[in-house]
Amino acid sequence: MTQTGTVYPDAPTTQTYDNPILSAIRNRRSIGRVTTQVPDHSLIRQILEAGTWAPNHHLTEPWRFFVLEGDARAELGQVMGAVAARRESDAVRKEAVAAKAVSKPMRAPCVIVVAVEPSIDGSIPEIEEIAAGSAAAQNMLLAAHALGLAAIWRSGWIAFEPEIRDHFGLSSRAQMLGFIYVGYPAMDAPARQRRSIDDVTTWIS
Ligand SMILES: Cc1cc2nc3c(=O)[nH]c(=O)nc-3n(C[C@H](O)[C@H](O)[C@H](O)COP(=O)(O)O)c2cc1C
């Protein structure tokens, strides 16, 4: 297989296509700094609905969303802080590590928690349920972009600890996929690069 190693060093930050979907896919960026202004629920509902139109095998619709605003973010932060403190063995560092974790959900006025509950009868391999949930998350990122909102999908090891799943009343079989932080942008979209499709594609005929 030929490896060209090509990236696009001079790729434009944004690129226009005639097709609005292609433009959104190309120009969406993860934006981590947002203002404290809470997006209207009508916007968040559009984002959630976009998530539910993701493909999913056997129509299991395995995604579960939790929309956190206000104090609900701080409550999640407390759980995250306790998890971080439990993991930190250095007694001196414990407090600072916990405080950092506590503050994480406060980075945006709205946090959409994304998880999947795999189908109960086990007819779908778990990877497919996770794939469907991931497609839902990408749909939501694109919807936020289309609505002029900033969004970023964040995870981190704490997200995958059982305490987080339990906090949302999910089953022990559930898989957390992460947190989508949503707000109004307080920074320009960062420039990003991607490898050439030729680096990651093999054409077979
Ligand atoms: C499953 C997943 C987890 C992610 N977790 C984090 C995270 O914890 N912190 C973060 O800053 N970005 C996180 N990201 C966002 C990536 O950093 C981001 O997508 C990447 O830098 C490419 O930027 P772009 O989305 O603007 O193209 C995550 C993305 C995915 C798909």
Describe the protein's architecture and organization.
The protein has a domain at 31-68 and 107-188: NADH Oxidase, CATH 3.40.109. It has 7 helices and 4 strands. The chain has helices at residues 20-27, 41-52, 71-87, 91-103, 126-146, 162-167, 197-200; strands at residues 63-69, 110-116, 150-154, 175-183. It has a 4-stranded antiparallel beta sheet, with helices on both faces. α2 (41-52) packs antiparallel against α5 (126-146) and α3 (71-87) packs antiparallel against α4 (91-103). The two termini are 14 Å apart. The structure holds flavin mononucleotide.
Which ligands appear in the coordinates? flavin mononucleotide
| Strand line-up in the sheet with most strands | 1-2-4-3
Tell me roughly what share of residues is in helical segments.
25-40%
CATH class of the domain at 31-68 and 107-188: Alpha Beta
Mean of pLDDT? 94
Give the count of helical stretches: 7
Number of strands: 4
Structural class by sheet pairing and helices: alpha+beta
Topology summary:
Blueprint: H1 20-27, H2 41-52, E1 63-69, H3 71-87, H4 91-103, E2 110-116, H5 126-146, E3 150-154, H6 162-167, E4 175-183, H7 197-200
Antiparallel strand pairs: 1-2, 2-4, 3-4
Bound molecules: flavin mononucleotide.
List key phrases describing it.
alpha+beta; 205 residues; 14% strand; 4 strands; NADH Oxidase; binds flavin mononucleotide; 40% helix
